[in-house]
Design goal:
Strand order of the largest sheet: 1-2
Strand content: under 5%
CATH class of the largest domain: Mainly Alpha
Organism: Chironomus riparius
Membrane topology: Multi-pass membrane protein
Largest sheet: 2 strands, antiparallel
Number of strands: 2
CATH superfamily of the largest domain: Glycerol uptake facilitator protein
Main location: membrane
Pfam families: MIP
Distance between the termini: 10 Å
Order of helices and strands: HHHHHHHHHEHE
InterPro entries: Aquaporin-like, Aquaporin_transptr, MIP, MIP_CS
Number of helices: 10
Length: 267
């Protein structure tokens, strides 16, 4: 399989159909919602990991349902870089998305910080469990980024049209799954921008690199693995008399009659 990469100059110039700047704002808005409500749940969880998991998962679900058609609702540099690695988006679009994601994360966390000031000291900042070393934390975040991007590629596969209807729910539940499994170890970031926002507002940068390297490495690994080995086969329609009888025989039992069409799988 050959990957095709694009710089994306035409998108910056505003070529019709690209809508780059609208998409960039959508990314800003989407992760604003994610950090505001997800971290808000952290401030009142009292150790209830289910509450935190559902808050982040539902935030992603809500964002995907509302801005998915505008930007694809990456709201996560690990997703953006994973798609870039597979040649699904242009370089410039990836850069603009990541910048917007970081600013949106900071804005969402800052808004929360203002509203909870005097109520709690916590803003849901991700930190490694004191019993873990940084490489264990890196491993957890790697697999969190991996499962998220693997799910994104699976439900957004252009050859699996039916799966797109459940994509927002599937991705949101994957975020919930990641939090349920790992939140007590690393805070279950799986999103570098999410951790960047809380790090900026709290001023706590301890082991921050883990939350960038881990999810992004996992996301790239997942994108390449899916693209090379798990992409669904496509089908094309050939108009030809050569396949007329074959198609009639194949469709006979199903009661379908398309005598001039033949679907064949492309490897």
């Amino acid at each position: 399989m050959a990957f095709t990469y694009s710089l994306g100059v035409d998108e910056i110039r505003g070529r019709p159909g690209t809508n780059l700047y609208k998409a960039v704002f959508a990314e800003f808005f989407g992760i604003f919602i994610l950090n505001f409500f997800g971290c808000a749940a952290c401030t009142q969880s009292n150790g209830d990991f289910v509450l935190i998991s559902l808050a982040f998962g539902l935030s992603v679900f809500m964002a995907a349902m509302t801005i998915g058609h505008v930007s694809g609702c990456h709201i996560n540099p690990a997703v953006t870089i994973g798609l870039l690695a597979a040649g699904k988006i242009s370089i410039f679009r990836a850069i603009f998305y990541i910048i917007a994601q970081c600013f949106g994360s900071v804005a969402g966390t800052a808004a929360l910080h203002v509203l909870v000031s005097g109520l709690t000291e916590s803003i849901g900042h991700t930190q490694l469990n004191e019993k873990l070393d940084v490489y264990q934390g890196l491993g957890f975040e790697f697999f969190l980024g991996f499962i998220l991007v693997f799910c994104v590629f699976g439900v957004c596969d252009e050859n699996k049209q039916d799966s797109r209807f459940i994509a927002p729910l599937a991705i949101g539940l994957t975020v919930t799954l990641g939090h349920l499994g790992v939140v007590s170890y690393t805070g279950a970031s799986m999103n570098p921008a999410r951790s960047f926002g809380t790090a900026v507002v709290s001023g706590d940068w301890l082991n921050h690199w883990v939350y960038w390297v881990g999810p992004i490495a996992g996301g790239v690994a997942a994108s390449l693995l899916y693209s090379l080995f798990f992409t669904a086969p496509s089908a094309k329609i050939i108009h030809s008399d050569k396949y007329r009888q074959v198609q009639q025989n194949d469709d006979k039992e199903a009661g379908v009659k398309y005598p001039d069409l033949k679907y064949i799988d492309e490897e």
